[in-house]
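Subject: design request, 275 residues
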């Protein structure tokens, strides 16, 4: 499986397509991630919040895949903001994963009400320097949160992982990140199965033309917008389908038709409110 790599602003590379494990039950994580690794995924996106880091870790060990061939992301949860809490949080995540480093460590939400995302970011800079995370980034940060990091710290986040799908495609946010050299990761890339996204005629007609499923068309749309994407599924057949994206391409008309679905329909909460 030849999955494209994206070069981050710190020089590290990330597989553009991965596998997400939000809402994968802890007792199912090992089986589901093992299947994903067998299907060819090498990039796994987890978080302390998901409660399944240990299962992800067992699947990694059992796979026998050399560590350097894998790209593992986890995230610092909202009640772990603050310098010492961040150090404790990465230690605990690494222990659950059974790893001595992750490839990418993210602040899950900015939680402005706690007023600690700058301090937490400085802790992530130290975590990177200590070798516990090769790259560091953020998630659900809006431009003004990012600006606070630019103003106060030395490191521009390597990625911003944000809700992004055709019904909430965030062109301004994408431009802002591109201007600052921040790679964008799309969470909820399939709209989490909501809003009947995969039944939209703009998508089903393109799918029919290419002999692909609507999910494959949407994932291809993300890839062709240079987004990093890691769809989630507990279903083996769908996991195989979601990685089978490299034998077709959307035309500029196809892309424009899907871009036209944008209507600012958010699944998640407001990053200024959550926490
Ligand atoms: P998603 O858009 O990947 O949707 C997953 C759902 O889509 C599945 O449960 C299934 O119902 C459907 N689906 C998957 N493959 C399909 C197929 N081939 N055909 C038809 N339907 C299919 O949503 P997600 O899981 O929320 O997002 C992906 C990943 O992003 C997560 O697993 C997690 O790693 C990450 N995430 C991060 C945040 C954050 O705040 N940083 C929030 C949510 C998710």
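Subject: RE: design request

Done. Sequence follows.
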């Amino acid at each position: 499986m030849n999955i494209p790599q994206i070069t981050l602003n710190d020089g590290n590379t990330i597989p553009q397509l991965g596998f997400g494990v939000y809402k994968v039950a802890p007792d199912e994580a090992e089986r589901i991630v093992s299947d994903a690794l067998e299907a060819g995924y090498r990039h796994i996106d987890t978080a302390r919040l998901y409660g399944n880091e240990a299962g992800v870790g067992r699947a990694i060990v059992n796979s026998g895949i050399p560590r350097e061939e894998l790209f593992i992301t986890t995230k610092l949860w909202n009640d772990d903001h603050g310098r010492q809490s961040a150090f404790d949080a990465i230690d605990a995540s690494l222990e659950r994963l059974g790893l001595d480093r992750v490839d990418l460590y993210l602040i899950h939400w900015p939680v402005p009400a706690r007023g600690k995302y700058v301090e937490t970011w400085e802790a992530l800079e130290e975590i990177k320097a200590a070798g516990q995370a090769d790259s560091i980034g953020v998630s659900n940060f809006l431009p003004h949160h990012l600006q606070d990091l630019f103003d106060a710290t030395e490191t521009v986040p390597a990625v911003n992982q944000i809700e992004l799908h055709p019904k909430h495609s965030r062109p301004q946010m994408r431009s802002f990140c591109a201007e600052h050299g921040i790679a964008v990761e799309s969470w909820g890339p399939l709209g989490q199965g909501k809003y009947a996204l995969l039944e939209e005629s703009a998508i089903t007609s393109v799918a029919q033309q290419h002999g692909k499923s609507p999910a494959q068309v949407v994932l291809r749309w993300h890839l062709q917008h240079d987004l990093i994407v890691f769809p989630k599924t507990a279903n083996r057949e769908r996991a195989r389908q979601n990685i089978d994206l490299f034998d077709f391409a959307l035309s500029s008309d196809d892309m424009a038709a899907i871009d036209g679905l944008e209507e600012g329909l958010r699944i998640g909460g407001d990053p200024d409110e959550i926490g």
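The pocket of nicotinamide-adenine-dinucleotide is lined by residues 20-22, 45, 108, 139-140, 161, 187-193, 198, 213, 215, 230-233, 238, 241-242 (CB under 6 Å).
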